Design the sequence.
C-alpha cells in the first residue's frame, strides 16, 4: 500500500499538470483566434466620413472588441479574466494612433519591421499612419486574457498575477481595406 501511494502521488501530479497545460494551451489558441477575428473586423470597418477620424477609431475598436469576444467560445468574456468596456458600441475616443481599452490595445501604423516591432514605432516617424480613414495602414490588435491556474503546485512554476491567473498576451496585424 505504501509503494502504491508513493507511485500514485507523482503520477497524479503529472496527469493534473498535463490537464492544466492543456487548458492553458487551449485558451491561448482561442485568444489567438479571437485577436485575428478582431483584426479582421477592424480591416473591414466602414469609415463614416461625416465623423472625425478619432470617432471612427473608437467605433472601429468597438467592432474589434465585439468580434474578438464573439470568438471567445467557452472562455469567460467578463472580469477578472477579460475587460474591455464599450459605451454605445464604441471604445473611449482616442487621442493618438494607439487606443487602449482595458485588455484590448488597437494601434495603426504604415509599416512594421517585424511582427514584434512596435506599431507605430516612435523612433521611426515613417511608420506612423497618417491617413484618417486608415486605408492601406496596418491595424494591430493586442488582447490580454487571464486563465485560472487550478493546480496548486504549478502556480509556483508558472508566471501569474496575485490571483493565480496566467496572463496570455496575443496580437494580430492586418491591412485595413
Sequence:
Amino acid at each position: 500500500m505504501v509503494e502504491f501511494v508513493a507511485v500514485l502521488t507523482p503520477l497524479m501530479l503529472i496527469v493534473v499538470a498535463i490537464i492544466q497545460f492543456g487548458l492553458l494551451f487551449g485558451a491561448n489558441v482561442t485568444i489567438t483566434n479571437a485577436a485575428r477575428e478582431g483584426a479582421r473586423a477592424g480591416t473591414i470597418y466602414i469609415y463614416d466620413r461625416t465623423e472625425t477620424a478619432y470617432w471612427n477609431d473608437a467605433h472601429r475598436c468597438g467592432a474589434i472588441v465585439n468580434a474578438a469576444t464573439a470568438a471567445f467560445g467557452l472562455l469567460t468574456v467578463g472580469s477578472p479574466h477579460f475587460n474591455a468596456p464599450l459605451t454605445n458600441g464604441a471604445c473611449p475616443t482616442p487621442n493618438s494612433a494607439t487606443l487602449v481599452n482595458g485588455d484590448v490595445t488597437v494601434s495603426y501604423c504604415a509599416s512594421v519591421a517585424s511582427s514584434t516591432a512596435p506599431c507605430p514605432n516612435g523612433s521611426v516617424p515613417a511608420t506612423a499612419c497618417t491617413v484618417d480613414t486608415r486605408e492601406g495602414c496596418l491595424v494591430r490588435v493586442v488582447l490580454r486574457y487571464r486563465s485560472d491556474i487550478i493546480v496548486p503546485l504549478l502556480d509556483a512554476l508558472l508566471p501569474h498575477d496575485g490571483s493565480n491567473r496566467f496572463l496570455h498576451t496575443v496580437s494580430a496585424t492586418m491591412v485595413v481595406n
In short: The chain has a mean pLDDT of 92. The chain has one domain: 2-175. The chain has two helices and four strands. Strands lie at 98-101, 104-109, 138-148, 165-175.
